[in-house]
Amino acid sequence: MTDHLIQLVGPGGAGKSTVGPALAKRLGVEYVDLDDQFKVMAGSISGYIDTCGYAARNVDLYGDLVRKIDRCAVFALSSGFMTYPLDIHSNYGRYRADIATSPMTFVLLPSLKLEICVAERFVGR
After folding, report:
1. Domains of the chain (ranges plus CATH)?
2. Element (H, E) at 90
């Protein structure tokens, strides 16, 4: 399923939205940011979380978007996507395993310093 995706996984500030579009342009393929697509679907992520929860719908959206990609694409995922409970969605375990084992998945970190990598980031709020 994900063999045609270059997946960039990382926390906010790691460079997914900088590296992703540049890589997609260089390869001549589509760039998809899961958070941006969620905002198109639901508006404010924070507002959606407050009223409806988030993880299960985000997993649904991931599955929908991946199925629509018929050739290679660069796909950005927040590292939080990889931390949901396995029972949050019937397909989540398979999706997470596919992402984790794909040779086309790259984890981006905002720094090589542990303290910076694990710090909660509030950029733009």
Report:
1. 5-118 (3.40.50.300)
2. none
105 and 99 Cβ atoms separated by less than 8 Å: yes
Own/partner contacts of 60-65, CB < 8 Å, gap of 24 or more, are 60/89, 61/34, 61/37, 62/34, 62/95, 63/91, 63/95, 65/32, 65/34, 65/37
If one counts every other C-beta atom within 10 angstroms of the C-beta of residue 78, the result is 19
* pLDDT value for 21: 93
Integer Cα distance of 95 and 65 in angstroms: 12
pLDDT in tens, 100-110: 999 999 888 77
Residues 16, 110 contacting (CB under 8 angstroms): no
Q: What pLDDT digit, counting tens, does each position of 11-38 carry?
A: 877 888 899 999 999 999 999 888 888 7
**pLDDT of 60 higher than 90:** no
